[in-house]
């Protein structure tokens, strides 16, 4: 039971980190650096 709790808390922590990282990427994308990348992708 303790092992399950440790595994679950570790998984939850990893999930939070992943969500925070993806939100930061989206925020940086909308800040304007993403617009240049978008144009590059369309041109490619």
From TrEMBL:
Residues 1-21 form the signal peptide. Keywords: Signal. This is Uncharacterized protein. It comes from Nymphaea colorata. The lineage of its organism: Eukaryota, Viridiplantae, Streptophyta, Embryophyta, Tracheophyta.
């Amino acid at each position: 039971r303790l092992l399950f709790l440790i595994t679950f808390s570790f998984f939850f922590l990893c999930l939070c980190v992943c969500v925070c990282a993806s939100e930061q990427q989206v925020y940086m994308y909308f800040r304007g650096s993403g617009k240049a990348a978008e144009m590059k992708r369309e041109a490619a």
